């Protein structure tokens, strides 16, 4: 193996390591984004429940009929 080949092979390793780290960071960011979206949904649901506390709900049979759903 020539010196040029040895240097070239050695210089590629840090790039592969960086590519792996970038891929891992992206995976972590996707997971974090999903978690934040889930938490935001839970917060909105809690607010909606608080806003609607004590209010009368909508009859499911009426909703199905108005929307044309037939689940029977």
Could you explain how this protein is built, in words?
With 72 residues, this protein is mainly alpha-helical. It contains 2 helices and no strands. The relative contact order is 0.05.
What is this structure's SSE topology?
Elements: H1 3-51, H2 60-67
Outline of the structure:
With 72 residues, the protein is mostly helical. It has a domain at 1-46.
Range of strand content: under 5%
String of helices and strands: HH
Shape designation: elongated
Gap between N and C termini: 75 Å
Indicate the structural class: mainly alpha
Bin the helical content.
over 70%
By DSSP (H or I, 4+ residues per run), the number of helices equals 2
Count the E strands.
0
Outline the biggest β-sheet. none
Mean of residue pLDDT values: 87
Low-confidence stretches: none
Give the C-alpha Rg: 28 Å
Brief descriptors of the model:
72 residues, single chain, mainly alpha
